[in-house]
Amino acid sequence: DTSVSPCTPTLRVRPLTCTETRRGDQQVVHSLGDGAVHVSAARHDATFGFSAVFDAGASQEAVFEGSGMRQLVELAMDGFSCTVFAFGQTGSGKTYTLMGPLGQGDTQPASPALLGLMQRSFTCLLEQSQSRASDLALSASYLEIYNEQVRDLLSPGPPCALPLRWSKSRGFYVENQLSVEFESLEAIVSLLLQVPPPAGSQRRRTSAHALNRHSSRSHALLTVHIRSRAASACPSKQGTLCFVDLAGSERVKETGSSGELSVEANSINRSLLALGHCISLLAKPRGKRTHIPYRDSKLTRLLARSLGGSGITLMVACISPSSRCLSETLSTLHYASRARRVTTRP
């Protein structure tokens, strides 16, 4: 049996915010070291284990190196299909972990120390290309899933819904999505963050509510396609590196959402529930698995190959240590713990 556990869950605990500190929230999540974290609150006392745990003092560089992200980049160059996705409650630090602080595409870019997993992976990708003396052909596509519609974030004009298809050779794929070639780190960062004209992250749906002033209202998937050919006569390798910034799970009562925001929240929660259900079934021993319902949402269809197919996946579960967020924090911890038991054949 060549099954391995290609889904590696790591945990990042953000610091208490100024608002949480002012209102007297208690810190209920504590790192124990060696990949263990303890939750201690009224009627709740539990310990969870992960491949790595990053507490409030962990730097962006520490998360990149300690999560195994560098190894994921190298595997993508070797021809594997690799995915990293951030999961957690709204306001738990998912987008910051992947992309760094908001506004770094403006005239004053963010400090290099604050850059997220995406930019660090691009730098690593180009460094590896030079050290291996291999010729890389790179291209990227960028999609969002908003209210169960798949939209291209790179195509010109207003975002329009694209059909999601399935074939035996490709699995689930998005028809007519735009793929853009690039040759440098600056080119893909510009592609990702540029402001004029609106493209990439600037076109994602975001809103403000009680828990997060910049809440992502869609799931975003940036896929880098890597074709690597060595200087010798070796055959080329084709791999992918996909970054998935999931919209945050949330309770409508806590966020104060109504109207369109409430509709968006319900759509987000339904797709995350479908993803959790697929992970739960995949975590069962191979002989006891039933049908995996990837078709229950657009998100699970697009992540089918990453979770249960031939891919290698890194999950970064992001949580708040606040007592007020205890319910969502426990949900995220259970979610990530199940993912550790998933086995496939990458």
TrEMBL record:
Keyword ATP-binding: yes
Subcellular location, principal: cytoplasm
Domain of life per record: Eukaryota
GO molecular-function terms, A-Z: ATP binding; microtubule binding; microtubule motor activity
GO terms under cellular component: microtubule; microtubule associated complex
Boundaries of every Kinesin motor domain copy: 6-342
Entry's localization field: Cytoplasm, Cytoskeleton
GO term, biological process aspect, one: microtubule-based movement
Positions contributing to ATP binding: G88, Q89, T90, G91, S92, G93, K94, T95
Keyword Ribonucleoprotein: no
InterPro entries listed in its UniProt record: Kinesin-like_fam, Kinesin_motor_CS, Kinesin_motor_dom, Kinesin_motor_dom_sf, P-loop_NTPase
UniProt feature coiled coil, ranges: none
Keywords: ATP-binding, Cytoplasm, Cytoskeleton, Microtubule, Motor protein, Nucleotide-binding
Alphabetical list of PANTHER family matching this protein: CHROMOSOME-ASSOCIATED KINESIN KIF4A-RELATED, KINESIN-LIKE PROTEIN
Protein family membership: Belongs to the TRAFAC class myosin-kinesin ATPase superfamily. Kinesin family.
Protein known as: Kinesin-like protein
Organism: Emberiza fucata
